[in-house]
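Example 325, ligand magnesium ion.
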Amino acid sequence: MIATQKLINGIKFGDKRLISKAITLVESKNPEHRKQAENLLEQVMPFTGNSVKIGITGVPGAGKSTFIERFGKLALNRGKKVAVLAVDPSSSLNKGSILGDKTRMEDLAKEENAFIRPSPSSGFLGGIANTTFETILICEAAGYDYILVETVGVGQSEVLVSEITDVFLFLKIIGGGDELQGIKRGIMEMVDLIFINKVEDENLQKAKNTKLELARALQFLQSKEKDWKVPILLGSALENNGLEAVYEKIDEFVSLKKKSGRFDEIRKEQAEKRFEYWVKELILQKTKTENSAENSYEQHQKNASVLKKNPITEARLFVEKLLKI
Ligand SMILES: Nc1nc2c(ncn2[C@@H]2O[C@H](COP(=O)(O)OP(=O)(O)O)[C@@H](O)[C@H]2O)c(=O)[nH]1
Ligand SMILES: [Mg+2]
């Protein structure tokens, strides 16, 4: 185990190897590691809060990894530091996808001011690693200006990513079915910006139609932020076209939110949600480890699974015994 102070220094000096080690520590479920991780986070907290966290969603194959690679380079060219957290569950399920992402991101990873963290192999919660919030804190403390979080429309992953990022970007491709791409699954209510990707000469007209449809769909939704009309931009990540406009729009969004105070307000709400998450998580962990057999979580859960029994009653009985009410 590497000493906490060494890891902290590594984070402060932007030593990528030690940043990686610190993230591995934060991801660990081992109780000793958890203690050390908590201590480490406590000490790096004063250095957090200065990044722009961007969540990027879209169906597999929409071009998220390609987009991130290009966007990352753009930010580097402007003198920024970039961290990429890939929490694409398809990457760990499908070896081909890992290789694809690896080659795509390799170029970026070689850059001094870029840091790439691939998906952890376990610990997914509906597609997003349940420690991504904490991983982001480490990247922030390490001085990364942009933290890009790639997710995919599986289960709750989009909601979770939108709850830990400042800007939520939806990468859409032409056609492919709106339902599949999440129009009806509530993504549209979470997004701050839409980028229609893979728009090249031959399909420009189709892309414009898609944009009109999207704009119409957005009209019927309550906008997430009162003072912001979700922009729909067109471009091609592959041909490096249209990414500057995305960069500018993100800048504009962040400036606006900072000016109005919403930026910090949203971050505070996110921290509150994170607190709630950990309360539930830690109670659940304790209940599973520190109970006698007849009062055990498993026993009550088994009782609840008898179909004529009411799960709410079993849950209440269990909690009452646990808290000795
Ligand atoms: N034609 C075209 N292909 C693209 C574009 N962006 C990505 N692709 C290709 O689409 C495939 C999937 O890209 P990837 O970035 O892995 O998508 P992800 O699954 O959303 O991360 C790859 O073969 C890319 O080369 C684009 O703008 N135009
Ligand atoms: Mg990808």
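Summary: The pocket of magnesium ion (ligand 2) is lined by residues 64-65, 88, 101, 150 (CB under 6 Å).
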